[in-house]
Amino acid sequence: MVCGCSALLPLPNPRPTISTSCWIPRQPMPVAWAFVQKTSAKIPLETVKLWADTFGGDLYNTLTKYSGSLLLQKKYKDVESSLKIEEVDGLELVRKFSEDMENMLRRKVEAVQNLVEAAEEADLNHEFNESLVFDYYNSVLINERDEKGNFVELGAEFLLESNAHFSNLPVNTSISSVQLPTNVYNKDPDILNGVYMSEALNAVFVENFQRDPTLTWQYFGSATGFFRIYPGIKWTPDENGVITFDCRNRGWYIQAATSPKDIVILVDVSGSMKGLRMTIAKHTITTILDTLGENDFVNIIAYNDYVHYIEPCFKGILVQADRDNREHFKLLVEELMVKGVGVVDQALREAFQILKQFQEAKQGSLCNQAVMLISDGAVEDYEPVFEKYNWPDCKVRVFTYLIGREVSFADRMKWIACNNKGYYTQISTLADTQENVMEYLHVLSRPMVINHDHDIIWTEAYMDSKLLSSQAQSLMLLTTVAMPVFSKKNETRSHGILLGVVGSDVALRELMKLAPRYKLGVHGYAFLNTNNGYILSHPDLRPLYREGKKLKPKPNYNSVDLSEVEWEDQAESLRTAMINRETGTLSMDVKVPMDKGKRVLFLTNDYFFTDISDTPFSLGVVLSRGHGEYILLGNTSVEEGLHDLLHPDLALASDWIYCITDIDPDHRKLSQLEAVIRFLTREDADLECECCHLCDCFVTPPHQGEEDLLWGEAEQVVDMAFLGTRAGLLRSSLFVGSEKVSDRKFLTPEDEASVFTLDSFPLWYRQASEHPAGSFVFNLRWAEGPESTGEPTVVTASTAVAVTVDKKTAIAAAVGVQMKLEFLQRKFWAATRQVGQVGNSPCFPGCRPSDLDCFVIDNNGFILISKRSHEVPLGIVVNGRSASKVWGSLRTHHSLRLIFRVTMYDYQAMCKPSSHHHSAAQPLVSPISAFLTATRWLLQELVLFLLEWSVWGSWYDRGAEAHKQKKQDQLQPCDTEYPVFVYQPAIREANGIIECGPCQKVFVVQQIPNSNLLLLVTDPTCDCSIFPPVLQEATEVKYILQSSGMCARMRSQKLRRRPDSCHAFHPEENAQDCGGASDTSASLPLLLLPLCVWGLLPHLLR
């Protein structure tokens, strides 16, 4: 060995003889050479190999004995003649899944169409009655009693029963109930007439549900603000007693009510807009932004003496109104300051130029275009702007919002709107904003209403807030199919009156069950994306994040792009093909994270894709190369399969579909296993089942070695054995009492990573499938919960069982055991002592801290066994803790290729925002002046707070939400990168020397046979702490706004497919219905509250 060598030295075969005796120097040598010679002699290479072989052999014998892997392999061999392996046709599979999904979604569309017809017919036959008196089931008031025990008004008795089909919520499937937001009077004549008219929908709701029992929520959202929902449900106010839900704010309502649109918002920031006017203007902009969706495009321009874009990066363009951009705009709006004089004509010219350029370049929505003018008045000559850019065709609508109570400029603002096919409103208080902003949607809906075009829309994925606290994340994601409801009365035809929108929810989880995992293989999966390239459903979509003890939806959970999940597709070939509704296939080498990002698999995936007809969605199916291309099929009799299905140790994947149980109400309460048994015993002739798992049941009887093993012996070795098959069958056998199982969550729904789920196979199955059959994969497990010590106590070991038929190999199953980490450690130290005794040398070095440091690590560098667990050797991660600081010598040494680093990316991460500091250069002021300034500011803030609370906050909770968003410690969406470390499996044994400052550390690595484990032996005398720590934790990817990086990224317009329909204008439209002075909607006490506040100011100053 050469002095100072720093390269990895793979050991040749046959290996040269290296002495294992004590080192005795025979002549003086240079210090460094002597040191190397000395240390190298202290690590006997042959002995290390003996340790590894002995430990590996003992482990293999134990694991095969308790897992029954060899017996199971033999069982498959015995029935080989009845087995066949078929190659999976990915294109045929994706077409079949798409067809099934199309049929399911078509049934939802038919239900919505029935509601539209019923609602429009009911309105046609209803005459408005100003003095109508009518009682209905108010969702908030039902079952409520007064102090005398009587039901309150609109709160009659309403029977509610828990229903599993509706997430176990108490509902009434016989009738609907009506919800209203707090700021809508529940006995307003418009409300009473609308509720009375829509009673006709109750019978249709019930008929739809009887015809298609897979339907979930059905509803009608009225343009007047009430929301009729079936089945009937009790609505609970928030902690402040407020109902903030307004159906007209929901994405399904807005998308169904209008066609896609390009919007330029112009906001006056001149000096006259100070104070409450600016507060109202900001809230107006925020409300407009909330009415936009991913098919819309927007920009915001502030003007006074000059024009400036509130986001300079967006100068001269429109950007997609996705969640990220909307939230970005909202933050910038809050920073707007007033000064100077408002000159509106420059701002109007800029807005018209942007819209014209985008229209000519075939960019943006290519449908409606509008300018939103928000100001307290317009004084200069603006008519020439309209003459040049918009008249006579008026292709751009102009909506004007007069801010404040001043009416001097009302005529001018109305003139602008009425002469540009827009609408004028005056917003005097924060409480007026919502209703007045919604008027523009009614104007944009007129052409569609007049033409009676009932476009069917499907929303992006969104979260049902009712299920957030009780269901897993995959249960909460929904899409909605919705259609507009119009007035068909001839006398109102030119006005184009929108009555509302009807819709029905589709749980994406139920949709994805139509692509069963047992047809896709261990690493296969299916996913859906929208016409905008956003993920609708994907196993790697993570819509929730944890903040403290609470799970919360990420702000951008429904605008995660396909390229951010399938990020290996750098050319975006897959994304482009799917957005263009193509049917085809492509292949990609991918890195797949596992075990919460601690591990990685290297796979070659084949992607198959097609569109889902009559929807904006495309479906993708992924099959991994190798065993993922084949499926194992058996020929087993019903009697044989049924016999083993009845065994208590057996379970089927609860989220996989073997039998159709959601059509017949009598089947809904059946588990999939119960349904299969009823089908096989012919108890129910109406059940439809696909019993692909019968062969697995027959071949994998209760644990094969169980009867031969004594519990007393097993208790010192393993807790349980387990088995899983491709068909989703899971068996387990306990070798200890259930109370003595080290990890009781394992193989239970609480531990999703260890069981078959809708999205993935168990982690132990996935790991085993990527190692040679018969080779065991070890994995550390940590107990979770308040009683956890934070240290791993349990190890699982699993191996794949492969079957070969006609030269085709498929993974049939994976088996394994759960054992205490302590047993593994005892086994290793016993093996080293056994080899040491054979050596019979007085100075034979052992795995003692005084002689050598020995570590058993897995193929990702996690330590399973060590005498120095508190000290971290050679850059190996201790116990898999992602935040552990480790020595970087082995990993940072560039010439070594023993364990290599893989950089992974997460485009759905949440990070703490960077601190933003304004200039600290403040003028010097006297203490009195500073005190008066601070006092004045506090009083102004208090007045504004009370004013906003009085006329807005008690009805609307966005003020509180905005306040929370400003907290510096709140997490925000970000991109991160993190390292994963992987051992080179081709290197079975190696040694080397690492320079550690004044000394050199010698190490030897030896693979442990039939496992993913390595034995690492190092010299304990050399301190390598000079190397920087290696952290296996994510770091945020920083983008510099001023550079081309971040700005270009924000401006980029990814490929998208526009909706098929557009309704921008209609010749019969009544453009003179363009608004007027708005009456305030706030109550008198609320409006007088600010005056009271001003009267209290002298007292507040004392």
What is the radius of gyration? 35 Å
Q: Residue share in helices?
A: 25-40%
Q: Beta-sheet strand percentage?
A: 15-25%
**Main β-sheet: number of strands, strand sense, barrel status?**
7 strands, antiparallel
Number of helices: 28
Structural category is: alpha+beta
Distance between the termini: 86 Å
Mean pLDDT: 81
Low-confidence parts lasting 5 or more residues at pLDDT below 50?
1-41, 466-474, 704-712, 870-896, 916-967, 1077-1102
Shape: globular
- How many strands in all? 43
Keywords: Calcium, Calcium channel, Calcium transport, Disulfide bond, Glycoprotein, Ion channel, Ion transport, Membrane, Metal-binding, Signal, Transmembrane, Transmembrane helix, Transport, Voltage-gated channel
InterPro entries: Ca_channel_alpha-2/delta, VDCC_a2/dsu, VWA_N, VWF_A, vWFA_dom_sf
Organism: Rhinopithecus bieti (Black snub-nosed monkey)
Domain VWFA: 262-444
Provide keyphrases for this structure.
Beta-Lactamase; disordered N terminus; Rossmann fold; 7-stranded antiparallel sheet; globular; alpha+beta; 7-stranded mixed sheet; 43 strands; 1102 residues; 28 helices; disordered C terminus
Explain this structure to me?
- This protein has 1102 residues and is an alpha+beta fold.
- Among the domains are: 59-88 and 717-820, Beta-Lactamase; 108-253 and 458-507, no CATH class; 260-454, Rossmann fold (3-Layer(aba) Sandwich), CATH 3.40.50; 515-628, Beta-Lactamase, CATH 3.30.450; 847-911 and 972-1036, no CATH class.
- 29% of the residues lie in helices and 24% in strands.
- Strands 5, 6, 7, 16, 17, 18 and 19 form a 7-stranded antiparallel β-sheet that branches. Strands 9, 10, 11, 12, 13, 14 and 15 form a 7-stranded mixed β-sheet that branches.
- Helix 4 runs antiparallel to helix 6 (201-211) and helix 25 (927-953) runs antiparallel to helix 28.
- Mean pLDDT is 81; it is low at 1-41, 466-474, 704-712, 870-896, 916-967 and 1077-1102.
